[in-house]
Amino acid sequence: xxxxxxxxxxxxxxxxxxxxxxxxxxxxxxxxxxxxxxxxxxxxxxxxxxxxxxxxxxxxxxxxxxxxxxxxxxxxxxxxxxxxxxxxxxxxxxxxxxxxxxxxxxxxxxxxxxxxxxxxxxxxxxxxxxxxxxxxxxxxxxxxxxxxxxxxxxxxxxxxxxxxxxxxxxxxxxxxxxxxxxxxxxxxxxxxxxxxxxxxxxxxxxxxxxxxxxxxxxxxxxxxxxxxxxxxxxxxxxxxxxxxxxxxxxxxxxxxxxxxxxxxxxxxxxxxxxxxxxxxxxxxxxxxxxxxxxxxxxxxxxxxxxxxxxxxxxxxxxxxxxxxxxxxxxxxxxxxxxxxxxxxxxxxxxxxxxxxxxxxxxxxxxxxxxxxxxxxxxxxxxxxxxxxxxxxxxxxxxxxxxxxxxxxxxxxxxxxxxxxxxxxxxxxxxxxxxxxxxxxxxxxxxxxxxxxxxxxxxxxxxxxxxxxxxxxxxxxxxxxxxxxxxxxxxxxxxxxxxxxxxxxxxxxxxxxxxxxxxxxxxxxxxxxxxxxxxxxxxxxxxxxxxxxxxxxxxxxxxxxxxxxxxxxxxxxxxxxxxxxxxxxxxxxxxxxxxxxxxxxxxxxxxxxxxxxxxxxxxxxxxxxxxx
Length: 627
Hints:
With 627 residues, the chain is α/β, with parallel strands linked by helices. 57% of the residues lie in helices and 9% in strands.
């Protein structure tokens, strides 16, 4: 692939629209599961690319990130502008229930001189709400084809495809001095208050600004001519929508949804791993199912045979198989490339990732996710975060790996950096939490509350500091709140497949490579030298015995196992609290560390680790002085 094509992916059909208009559902309808989800070069904003087969010909379909305008004030809009450069045709997806709100982006797209068809999505909901749109009249007013569709059910999709492909494809346009084929006319937004931010610097150069007054007057005239409103009665869905945005009842609904979602993620994740059905404590019921059973019954016998061939105690055995526990392979503690190296990402992380993305897709497609983000935005904004940051944060309580990966749903590098940093520092995973409750719980409830209270204070303090120090665009929460709707099983399956395939393709090979390197260093006794160098800090500043250095370093491989290594050291209650907090905050486990570098890039990941080291030193020393 050439450098030019890599920077500006070409498409026969480009889907453009505002968030929550059903673009992803339409994209799945057009391409099936033959899709590739990628981060746009230079950003962590993702777009999806797939193939459409029509009349024995293949066409490239690209789903641009949702954006409210083509003004490049954030990464999503900038990526959409770049994708328009090499688009042969555009399908502008519009929510038929809110036509007036979506037409400003349509006007900007019409000014790009790219063959365009307007897709009126959710026309079934528009009918239910008593909204009638004159499709032919709207086409005549805008000068482009208009097709009414229901992406969830497939209504009108065939007509949309034939109408779009009947348009003459735009050939490659001449590129101007700014590097774009044209000036990408758009409505100008007010400049940001911080003139040094990207929002203040991107909004003027090399762009033609449409007259806002004329555009809105034109939209008003068009809507008045083509849209007719009829009286309709409130449905059960309408009443649920009113309840969820009520100042008091809405907060209760939000808290209930957060609790149910986290419980569902935990329930499904644990079932996929152990076959146990239960949320907390011992499983209520255990079935012969799960990744643990698969590795124990099918994988372990093969690896034991390989262990005999390699010879326990050999260097190759230590790298591939690891340490045998009582003559058997323990997939959590053996730390071999083929044992823990395969089980941790596939047997422990992947089930939680699958359960999270399933629940996330349900919240997305049902229409509740924007409401949850709006409800928590005021609190999160005081911490310098976006309301959507609560989603990856909650996931981190199950497993930090999918939590860090889920920061992709946030807009702007600054938001992703802050959220990923906080997850890796102050959000303990479920396995570590179980060890904290089991080990520290022997000192009483107060000790457990001290551990969690300290982590919460660290989470708040670090987020506030980063709010004022981290550079980058600070987006307001501008989301379109869609009506409640039943999720489509087809769309859910397509989303799950794309997201899980992305994890297996991108993260798994890097995780295995990192575990291999760490194992080699461990076998070469590099960790012993590190432990000797770190002993003065551990004993003097943190008040821990010198032997605690090894568990802290083992935490890089597996935090819950490392916390268990503190048990034989006969620590006092104070030392148990300090050790638990330090292990939760110290270097992320190897899987999280790999994903952190993958998602943030080398520079930002190193910044995140530097912040973590400072926070660990300050917190450990502070606890030693206070307790």
